Amino acid sequence: MDLLEREAVLQDLAGHLQAAVSGPGRLALVRGEAGIGKTTVVHHLARQADPSIRVLVGACDPLATPRPLGPLMDLAPRLGPAVRTGLTGALAGTCRSDEVFDCLLADLTASPSLLVVEDVHWADEATMDLLRYLARRLTSVPSLVVATYRDDEVGRTHHLTALLGTLAGYPWVYRHDLAPLSRSAVARLATGHAVDAEQLHHLSAGNPFIVTEILAAPAETIPATVREAVAGRLAGLSAAARTVVDVLAVLGHRVSPPLLAGVLPAPEEALEEAVACGIVRTVGQATEFRHELTRLAVLEAVPAASRLRIHRQALTAMRSGPVTADDLALLADHSEAAGDPAAVLEYAPAAADHAAATDAHREAAAQYARALRYADSLPSDRQTSLLEGHAQACLLSGRLDEGVESCRTAVRLHRAAGDRPREGDNLRRLSYWLWAAGRTAESRQTALDAMRMLDGLGPSRELAWAHLNLCQLACYEHEAVAETDSHAEKAIALGERFGDTEVVVQARFHAAAARMLSEGHGWEDCERAVDSAMAQDPPADAGSLALVMCWFAALQRDVDRTAAAVSRAEAHCLDHDLLFHLLSSRAWGSWGLLNRGSWTQAADAAQEVLSHPHSPPVVRALTLTVLGLVRARQGEVQVWPLLDQAASLVDANCLTATGLGWEARVEAAWLAGDDERVRAEARRGLDASQDRSHPWLSGPLACWIRRAGGTPPRVPAAGPHALELAGDWSGAAALWDTLGCPYDAALARLSGDAPALHQALAVFESLGARSAVARTRAVMRSRGVRPIRRGPRAATRANPYGLTNRELDVLKLLNEDLSDAEIAARLYITPKTAGHHVGAVLNKLGVHTRHEAARKLHHSDRR
Predict the structure, then answer these.
(1) Domain termination residue (choose one: 177, 203, 229)
(2) How many independent structural domains does the chain possess?
(3) Which GO annotations describe the biological process of this protein (predicted)?
(4) Which domain holds residue 829?
């Protein structure tokens, strides 16, 4: 298994080993909490060691009475006879330990070695002495000694602390800390699992052991292995320390000394013991569990009556002093757990408002939901305020179904109260999020209902937002630019009248975006609007504009613009906890990778988004379509179930508006050799988009009809599609190359001469597009183009990954950490062609990064 975020440490250790075997020797300390991956790293090091280096691995055991020289006993079969004899004598009491140490030193001096001693925190005194002895004399030994230990269990009084103090003065001793996995690494591990990667990172704090255990048993709240590991840690604690741990688990994630003292008088000594155990730690003045899942495992075992008592004590203690904004969430938690509804309604709404104001939308949604559970006795206006806050927080955090339902309930309550302005405003909000849920027909009708209701009440700020909503829907559904402009003008006039700059900025942006997509110019104006919005507007509004740019760049097949737009949107959404926008932008990013020819990365990115439990329907439809296209292009089975599932998640208008659905179905039919279905699916798509003015929707479908031998209708077409329909296949292919879409360029060349067909075939083969290769060969046979290569060249067949000679050249240059431009200069090709080759190499190797590709090269060389 490849290491995640451990490559640097492994590389450092490999460097130590190389330096040590040629002298002088070294000692490397690898430290980190339990489950962080110390054993995995040293085992990788052992496997990568040169065969001429002797590998010796021993471990200390968590025994009540540790074995004397236990690690050395493990190694005995691989050591020289003198060491084995000395060990036997030492155990029998006929030989001193220092004599054994002398024998081991001579053995290591005679043969370059990697000596690993794992879990030194459990070592006996003799093993500690052995490490002291070796460390002092390593400069004369051609060996690397690696010792691993859990730094979370080594406190001031631990017996290992003295040894570490001794080693601090030796310059040939190196220390390597293994940090928790980042959010992106946890997300990589979670790919293919229906889990929230952000929540997984929160529960595990990036601990690889906990991450893998959760993924192996996703149906369980707390995997049995984690529960047992926690129980094992707690087994050695005194009763007082166990009580402290139980109280900390009930009190929450991070506990201040005053709060702990308010529930448990004089906890200092017992707390120190719990910290030394490694299950909790101090952060500043507060105490917290190292992992949230560990806290939950402890909490699970606390009796219900004890939990209730502790929550009530905590609530009393916290309310007795000043309450800050940061205390609100914890007070709400304790209020509900203490069974105090009045306190819940005092603190939960305030906690929700605070969370929303600080962009913690998932926390806000949870706190609003908590308040709503006790809100039946509240006046109608307070209930609707809670519902509106809950809806907004749910929608921004990707919980569309919950948010839409709260919107509907708020509409009903406003209607019953006769509050027409707020009823209309909530209808407008409901409309916007129904579109995101893939229900565009209902969204459009709800938007019109909101506008008519508010228009009847006269000019207002709410009416400005209603026209803005219709402007947005017209832009997203690619209606005539005049329709978008009409609502934009009304929204701008009302926004300026009532001083609402958000409405004005949004309306101008969407009108410009609609023209840019339809007429092909104005991208820079839209970019400036997004940058301005990010500097001034509420984060959610700026996130919406950034998301539109991801979408429209992908629709126009501009891979560089797509990548840049997705990168900017991701950064903004991560900064402001905009989960819906984040998942949506990543979905468009997977489409951009597909267009670039990076199909493995596209499929992985799509799968990661699809696996998230809160991926909205439109996003799921997009990512399912990307996965279906990758399968179709690679000649795999089960393509149509994915495309049909995508179509079932959203209504027909949404499938058309997103731009990928119909074209994917048409291409899948063409790759399967079903030209009749190509023409039928393409015409269905054109019929669905006949009221739209978007040339990037109709142009591709017309081209597919032409490729399938039909006569395409006269429809709007943009860029390379217009050129291909006009018979200029060469110009179309060149424009596709400029946009960075090698697969589409090869498709255009199928209409060309013999050299163009050979060029198209080479690109399809480099991409692993087996279905397109088969169709291209059929076209070549039908036109009498010879010769036709039957499969890959001999050199390609000989390569274990199916790389061509040119791709192997590129892989070797990747090992030198060269950029696309530097590779291009070395191979006398263009940077874009170099980029295509790099994408093909990553696809064939099944890796995500250049670094991973270089490691594959090393692995291949060793074989």
Answers:
(1) 177
(2) 3
(3) regulation of DNA-templated transcription
(4) 800-862
